[in-house]
Fold this protein.
Amino acid sequence: MAPPRKVIITCAVTGAVHTPSMSPHLPITPEEIAAASVAAAEARAAIIHLHARDPQNGRPSPDPALFGRFLPRIRDATDAVVNITTGGGHGMSLEERTAAARWAEPEMASLNMGSMNFGLFEMAERRADWTHDWEPAYLEMTRDFIFRNTFKDIERVLKEIGEGCGTRFEFECYDVGHLYTLAHFLERGLVRPPLFVQTIFGIRGGIGAHPEELAHMRRTADRLFGDGYQWSILAAGRHQMPFATMGAAMGGHVRVGLEDSLFIGRGALATSNAEQVMKVRRLLEELGLAIATPAETRALLALKGGDRVAF
Ligand code: KMH
Ligand code: ZN
């Protein structure tokens, strides 16, 4: 019998989409982000996708000094692959968004493959009580906000962080056009296989969380990248676990974490990132799949190794 396929679990522990009033379990301080990451890795997440937040008020922060307070702790306590955002938080400049990755030279960084609307304002409509004034303002401003990722921006990240730091990317593709943009950079020789393609469903402004879109993104990526890519799936909010399950059954890797959904079930907040990792792991194992270790993940994605980072 053939051995089971190895599935990479990425855990995105805090992000820049949710705000502190939405869940008491969202990691905020460097200590909380480090502890959440270590627990997620112990639950068998092979990749930890990281943003930082201002420890005083929980606002997304690009400050490399904050990353510097949790990255060494994660490195010392786990073998997980560290993946640093270059998407940052809404309203940050590209310079700010890339500062932490340029400083840390991680094995992986995210790279968002197109400019788009990225609406978070519906989350502001759903609640009246906020701990911090910045929270409703941050969500509301996305009615009139373009998440900027031009060809020039993408090329700059590829050069500065890819070529410059030996970092490889989680290519964040929120719609079909983003796959074609990635294919364009492949044709120009600015990215090389194996590509780690993170297909994202259910962001307001991106492709919807419908099974037919999952199949469409898969078919298009297959056509454009053939066997030169590893496919991963993330879906926002309540779609997180159903899409992880469907995507894994179709041959994909999965991403979970409180960046993408605050919930563990219908109406029930997840009490930790590790709880979501354990849940998706159970689902994968029930499907007869195996969980990729960090070493297997490094081999699948051709990463430089955890000993070749700058933090
Ligand atoms: N928040 C996710 C939908 C990034 O960090 O570059 C996408 C994301 C962006 O993870
Ligand atoms: Zn992110």
